[in-house]
Amino acid sequence: MKKAVLVLFAVVAMALVFSGSAFAQGDNSVYFVTYYSNNASGAPDGTVRFINDGDTGGNLYAAIYVFDDSQELAECGACWISPDGLLSEDVKTELTANPITGRIPTRGVIKVISSSSSNPASTTPAPGLRGWATHIQRATPTSGAYATTEAPVADSNLAAGEESLLNSLCYYATLIGGSGLGSGQGTITCTPEDKDF
Which pTM does this prediction carry? Predict the structure, then answer.
């Protein structure tokens, strides 16, 4: 009888572990932020990489919003990522080469919404993206040498107001929807998954 109680206890304990938080769902983040710096001639290129972890089983889009250091939107767009796919975006040639103002920003902020919509002006947040970014650091203030570091992008909380603002800024800054201020500028270039630079 004592053995049967111990076996029953073990079975119940295992059932609780498998149904409880020990094997909880993955990270449900849909919003990420990072920075870029030393985006200048002679410096190495920064890189932003995202993967679709395959959790949803479908395609996702990295809706990317690039700001300069004056908090002004420079470029935006949405890049497709298949399940288990890898997106690599070069900061110099794909994220800051076509700014709205025509002035290439040297430093700023990159915000990304994991979305099931291909339209960065009308996102549909969906979890499943994971990201990393390289950061270009000047080795010393007076030298021309640079160091490259890499870190995960920061998971952030996406407030409804923030999503609405990013969508609206992208809509008005580009030609999305048939109108905009950018006249063809302000749109990032997406690298196809199998064409990494």
Answer: 0.83
